[in-house]
Amino acid sequence: MSALKRYWRVALGMVVIAALIIAPMYLNRYGLFILSQWAVMTIAATGLNLTLGYAGQVSLAQGAFVGIGAYAAAIMTANGMPLIAGLGVAIVLCFAIGWILGYPALRVQHHYLAFVTLAFSTLAFLVFRNESWLTNGIYGISNIPRPTILGYPTNRPLPFYYVCLGSLALVSLATWWLIRSPWGRAFVALRENPVRALSLGIDTRRYTLMAFAIGSALGGVAGTLYAPLTQYIDPVPFNLSLSLDLLMMVIVGGSGFFFGPFLGAMIAVLLPEWLRFTQGYYLMIYAVAVILLLIYSPTGILGILDRYLTERRTKAASALRAVAKSGLEPAP
Amino acid sequence: MSNLLDLLIAGLATGAIYAIVAVGFTLLWQTSQTINFAQGEFVMLPAFLMLAAMHAGAPFWLAIIFGMLLSMLLLGLGFKMLLVDPMLRHGVLPLAIATMALAIGLKEAVKQFFSAEASPFPSIVPAGDISILGRQVALQSVGVLALAIAAVVGLTALLNRTSIGHQMQATAQNPVVARIIGIPVERMILLTFLINAFLVALASLLITPIYLAKFSSGEVLGQAAFIAAIVGGFNQVRGAIAGGLLIGVVDNLAAAYVSTQYRAAVPMVLLILIILLRPQGLLGRAEERTV
Amino acid sequence: MKSGILAGILLATMTAGAALAQSGAPIKLANVAELSGGGATVGTNWKNGIDLAIEEINAKGGVLGRKLEVTHADSQSNPGVARAQVQKALDGEPYVLLGPGYSGSVKVTAPLAAEAGIAQIMGGEAAELTQGGNKFLFRTSFGQQSSMPKVAKYINDEVKAKSVAIVWVNNDFGRGGRDVITKELAKYNIKVAADLSTEAGQADFAADVSKIKGAAPDAVFVYLNEEESARILKELKRQGVTVPLIGETTLVGQKVVELAGDAANGARGHVGLTTDAPVDLIKAFREKFSKKYNYVPDHNGIKGYLAIYMIKATTEKMGKVDSKAFADNLHGLTIKATSEPGILMDATFDQNGDIDRQGFLVEIVDGKQVIKQVLPKLN
What we know:
The complex is a heterotrimer. Chain A is mostly helical. Chain A is built from 14 helices and two strands, in the order ααααααββαααααααα. In chain A, strands 1-2 form a two-stranded antiparallel ribbon. Chain A is globular, with a radius of gyration of 22 Å. The mean pLDDT of chain A is 91. In chain C, the strands form three sheets. Chain C has a seven-stranded mixed β-sheet with strand order 7-6-8-9-10-14-15, sandwiched between helices. Chain C has a five-stranded parallel β-sheet with strand order 2-1-3-4-5, with helices on both faces. Chain C has helices at 2-23, 40-59, 79-91, 103-116, 144-159, 172-187, 206-215, 226-238, 249-252, 254-260, 280-293, 299-318, 323-330; strands at residues 27-33, 68-74, 96-98, 120-122, 137-139, 163-169, 191-198, 219-223, 245-247, 268-271, 334-335, 347-349, 355-356, 359-365, 368-375. Classes of the chains: A mainly alpha, B mainly alpha, C alpha/beta. Chains in contact: A-B, A-C, B-C.
């Protein structure tokens, strides 16, 4: 039976992947842009999910890391360097900043990382805005080129969507591997019971830092895609509200579930678009929908599924037990 | 030197605004581990309730009473029963996220049903200035400062001198034990939500003549108050007041002596330093490590 | 045989449909504006101005006998969202694209509209927008490159200031104005005594004003949004700053007077579009707008209103609804208020899409905007 379920799961995964590859061929430019945005936000949220869902640390600076990545990409490509160089710089920079931020904060206690990242988020915005010599300040950077990959230009919406989707696939595979590695198990051990993890000889601070730094670096990766996607960046989109939005995506999708960020980003990016037919009411309805969803299932969308599956499993198990019990009872 | 005095007085006046809003943050956190990201919007809304009453023809004093009562009903009772109660046992974060969504919803609702324009708001403190130490200070600012002080004195008295206050403190410190010794924990928590709603409505009344009634005016305020609460120590009313005043003053001094472009950075650096050097906040108590 | 008949019917309906599109079907316009987020006040005024103009035109039978129809989309004041919404609007092949108002959002969307060959009438005021050779982009108000020289000239000729303190709001609007005025003041050898950046939504201007006092300039140039303008005017009065206060539409508008009270007295500035202008058509517009929406519009309300009448005038000049030819025909066009009252004041559009029309120098006296000087249209 479990083999059958696994089979179904794989089939479902295949269908979704096929849909993500084939369906966009029939979408207009707007649809492609929105789907690309979804892929980019999913990458950023996946990073935050690593920090929050697996290592249990709240970061309020994921949006700032997306900004750092976006500026790295924009500045470097504007100066004629390839996007891949921007990507490298973004990853290294975000990882290093994450490490430096997390080091002192985690020395103290749990929620202080949240406060430090909150402050960092504002500082990053001010640097983006005020250091005009580097970032062109509030005017922003326009005409950010899209990359040419293996001699194939990705200027058109469809090829660039595949760049975003491909990046999402790579990031997902890397994260999947990471979570299954001893490191990933250490992250989870940390979240579940830090004291026990410590007593088992896990260097808790190092692993927490590592999770935060890797998560931040993924924010940077998302940023390097965001810049060529919109082809224009200014400081405003990377303020605290993006960080809060990303946090919402992780929680709403289901923090600590691998596919949580995929669904969370879908809610945050696609739901407002679907609701636009209500005109001036769409953001209000969106807010109410998110609140209702969280009230119904504080563990997010995948939390609902998880609860349902657990219930079914318990029911199945008790049914089995009942059968076993009746089998054991001596025949009258 | 006279310049510095000007800045200090103005900073204290702005800081007092942050302080009143920050007090509510700490109250909710203490009794029910609620981080209310919509606190700024909670201050924005009552002014609109009062304006709506005035548009319907009510005199100002009646509009104030109406606004206060409706705020306590919506932002106190309603907030607790509809949002906090169902989510509280699932931890801090989902609830915090839900309050973020609530902030969006409140802003949009006011914009849609009232106006995207800023409206002037009548002041209960007469407009005009008074002279303090030879400086011209707005009466409104003095009023806000006086209220902030009254709020902390009143709250401290309530918490320390009355039986209800003691029960509230017990609830905040250890709800399980409080319940065992017969304190109506639920009622105490509800009381803090009502106090918070009362405070934000009062803040709204005092602040809106300066900030103007606008759907987005809670954003800046909420964030400043949140930072004030952290700086002061998240778990102390006194701390919130000190944090608010400090942020107000530091902001002004930063603009005058550091850089206007980076004025918002200085309170943030202060925040980071305080976390590193005195993580429980200026006046906060250290929290026990919960395992 | 059967399929032949079917094809015939199909062809007939199609031609009928095309003919219908030619005469009766509504002309589709798409508006993308800041309806939520930081620019919501700007975008809502713009949207209301558009809706008012369309209602008027449709009540009188539309344009060339066809009704106007507009869709509004919210950019959330975010360039990324603006790009998505403009893309969506362009996918729907509108006759003309309206908005956005934020300069950053205009920068990100203008290439898309140009690529689609659809004219874009927007509200942005940054100088550089119309200097990139985009043949499809049009302004509804003076760009900063045409308003700031007038302000600088006024500061030099009339105020005769030798040093000026500049207070600006650090967003694309404020920063743009500050950069242009700094350049213009330099031409007159006027010194910038203090250069003060402030935050949008800032409530406390004590530090900024005390810096101004310290710099002791001959005049202060204030370039903030209306609400912050009102607050700084109060603070300037409180700290006893008496030098001339000079600004733009956002310093001397009726909204500022309403919010700042008598602290606004004495403030003066250049105004491109104002609902207080001594022009009968503008007074009538203001009346209609206030009646419909229950508040007095700011200049963004007028901008949205004008955008629609620009479309009407251009289309009637062409005598047909031709999206591709629209931009060409609006370039170099002069629209006279006598023949098209909806344009409110005579306006000429140049090859860059910049607008030329009358401007005003005003001063606040006893809580009223008083026009001190009318700056004539250049050509």
